Amino acid sequence: MGSLVDNIIPATADSPSALQANVHEFVIKMVTDCADVKTQNKFIEGLKDLQEYTHARFSMPFERCSVTQQQSVLKYFQKKDEPFPGVIGKAQNVFFGKSFFTTLKEYTTIGYFTSEIGATKAVRYEYIPGKYEACRPYISGEKSWATT
Amino acid sequence: MENRTTQIIGENTFDAIVVGSGISGGWAAKELCEKGLKTLVLERGRNVEHVKDYTTALKHPWDFEHHLTNTIKDKKNNPIQSLAYDEATKHFFVKDSQHPYIQEKPFNWIRGYQVGGRSLTWGRQTYRLSDLDFEANAKEGIGVDWPIRYKDIEPWYDYVEKFVGISGKSEGLPHLPDGNFLPPIEMNCVEEYFAKKTLENFEDIRVINGRVANLTKGLNGRGPC
């Protein structure tokens, strides 16, 4: 799980990776407690598929593959798991559960940007916002704001 | 003995008894007390002390087990209230299992039993009703006609708004009467553009600033939000 989340949000020069923010634990917790049963099952099946696919291609488990190999595996699952666009995609998620890759990416990003490391290092977090400014000019390279 | 009885009766005699301490009961009690009436407020829920009992107000999203998301188990146990709360506000809502009710037609009855009632969880959006609302059911022959019209309630809107502090913008719309507004919370440039384009393209659709109980400047000794 650690190498999975780190492929989705790797470390940058000034922001730690998803694994460093303990997002792998958050994803497991969310799948266990917050996902519906269909999504849970798809996630577990997806993990099995991912290992089988990785083994068939690289003859070793995902976590031991190089980053390039891992990325190519994830790209395959991203494409495979892509829901249909628009309303059909939404209906698909409701009736069949969210796909493995959708759940992985969703909980990784939610977990990262609501974690202390993600919210304060990758984006800007204001504990107690002072004043509301409707508009201000964007300075190139400026970090986005944590939404919560 | 007689003196003691008289004393007890005196202690337990009130000019007014308010049942419920929510936004209506709370206001009624405030009015009655300010007018010098000996007032008793009855509240079925627990006491909530201002600031001290806002136990989650200073927490970060990462302080909550699921970073504010409700669990499946929780949604199953509280299918109605969980639509309105998250991990940070759950303690101000009732448990559906303890307070069941019959839904003849779908109706989400969101409730909070504590001192202050739902005023603690209210979303602060504050709009005046107009005669369009007061007359709608009578025009369609549904239910009993309201005993009042907008002109009857208008001075009371003025009265309450001056105390609460509602930010917003006067628009002159007959179906959404203006109030005593504090400066509005400004639209951002995207919202501004959307409002402008809507006005250009639709004669009868308006995009306006929210009218909300957030102080955009100090009022009655309370600082701006």
Produce a short descriptive summary.
The complex is a heterodimer of chains A (148) and B (225). Chain A is mainly alpha-helical and 148 residues long. Chain A is 59% helix and 0% strand.
Describe the structure.
The complex is a heterodimer of chains A (148) and B (225). Chain A is mainly alpha-helical. Chain A has one domain. Chain A is 59% helix and 0% strand. Chain B has 225 residues and is mostly helical. Helices cover 29% and strands 5% of the residues of chain B. Among the domains of chain B are: 2-42, no CATH class; 124-225, no CATH class. The A-B interface holds A 26, 29-30, 33-36, 110-111, 114-116, 119, 127, 132, 134-135, 148 and B 60-62, 65-73, 185-189, 191.
Cα shape of chain B: globular
- Helical proportion of chain B? 25-40%
| Relative strand content of chain B | 5-15%
Q: What's the mean pLDDT score of chain B?
A: 95
Structural class of chain A comes to mainly alpha
Contiguous runs where pLDDT drops below 50 for at least 5 residues of chain A: none
H-E order of chain A: HHHHHHH
Strand content of chain A: under 5%
Largest interface: A-B, 18 and 18 residues
What is the average of the pLDDT values of chain A? 92
